[in-house]
UniProtKB/TrEMBL annotation:
Organism whose genome encodes this protein: Deinococcus psychrotolerans
The entry's keywords: Oxidoreductase
Molecular function per GO: oxidoreductase activity
InterPro entries: FAD/NAD-bd_sf
UniProt name for this protein: NAD(P)/FAD-dependent oxidoreductase
Amino acid sequence: MGVLGGGLAGLSLAALLAEAGHSVTVYEAGEFGGKLSRLSVGGLAFGTGPSLFTFPGVWRHYLAALNEPDSLDLQPLEGGLGLHHTPFGAVALPVPPDHPLSGEWQRYLARVGPIQAEVETLLTRPPRLNDPAFLRASARVGRVLGGHLSAESWISAQHFSPLLAHALNTHALNAGLSPKDAPALYALLPALIAAEVSRPAGGMTRLLDELLRFCRERGVTLLEQTPVIHLDAARGILKLGSGTARHDLIVSALDPARRAELSGQTSKPQARTVSGLAIYAAFAELVPLPATSIIAPSNFQTFRRAVQAQALPPDTLALVHADGRKLALLLTVPASGQALNLTQPWVRGQIERVERVLGVPNFLRKALDIQALDPVHYAALGTAGGAIYGAAYPAWRSGPFHPQPYRVSAKLWQVGTAVHPGGGIPAILGGALIVSKLIQQA
Ligand SMILES: Cc1cc2nc3c(=O)[nH]c(=O)nc-3n(C[C@H](O)[C@H](O)[C@H](O)COP(=O)(O)OP(=O)(O)OC[C@H]3O[C@@H](n4cnc5c(N)ncnc54)[C@H](O)[C@@H]3O)c2cc1C
């Protein structure tokens, strides 16, 4: 079997297919890891891309399928999902027991917490109407969603105070979409993940190390710097820079538009999730900030209008992670593929806003070294415009209830962001479990 793309999706699937006894080759155009890569800034090692490891239960399902013990050493992230700064004040999620909003948070947990196992089921099992476990889980999650399509609509129906509502709406942006466009399921995420949000003790790149080890130990052929330049899925032929390869079955772990392009097809331009400018900075001293701070857009409608017009929003979502002498700052931007750097006035303005809100004026200027990854970087081997979470689908087409296009044609399957846009690591690992099961059953 040939797997196109050696990001987390391609590698996690390759290990499962090899475990099932198949001979597997992974073709990666650049370096393994895709969005999760290693970056050295000021002599300090950073992992780019994902920073929050959520739904550890999905990881445990994945390990069970490989008969592997858990060696990731996941550590709870100090401060959970972090301190959320909104126009109505700041609140940590999970809301601490002594906070005035603790009662509202408990009401939210009581409503959403009980469906944790069901969401895990939906993340890891093929969506099949003849599977009672899938149907039971869908029905229970559907009841909590209560017919709301968007995250904004679900949150507004709960009549939370403006501060908690704004913080929860901010989280919906994890799908890469404004709360009005993000599926309602994203409104439930803080309740489902806040208690268990974690990171491997050795940093996120440990996940990449583990997936590579699982592949190597099962005999997967791992080819780095080996771009696929043409795909003939019907005949199972991949054209590489140097020669061709033939496979009985091919799985694409690439963006679907990129995969279509490799087959010589054109695909319709699609709406996109957001992109980002990720800034990684190394300091001489410990960074005096909480582990995670989130600075919300002050107005979601203004934010949405700007992103839809592919314009830079007046004040955007910023995620700040502090870890010892390291600081990572992610500014959300539209997926327009534009080049951004630290000298541009909009970027400088957003950094000043973040520093002002966090009470550390001119902080970034003290960095020993800074590197930034912009939408041009994310677009290079990823999705059009640098969309971090792939294409944007309407709410009714997103999430676990929508039958996903796992099988593209007789010999071609797809996995990863292509089938679970907005899902992050849990959907990548769960999607690999689903696709490997479906391939075994086919
Ligand atoms: C800044 C940022 C923050 C994030 N934060 C989180 C988070 O906190 N938690 C979370 O769970 N998720 C997060 N995510 C999302 C998570 O990183 C992604 O969902 C995941 O890494 C996607 O993996 P993938 O394998 O589907 O895609 P990719 O990582 O894009 O992998 C695709 C691979 O295909 C390769 N490729 C492309 N074209 C070819 C070709 N022609 N031939 C061969 N190979 C090719 C690319 O080089 C790449 O390695 C974040 C992402 C970003 C960018």
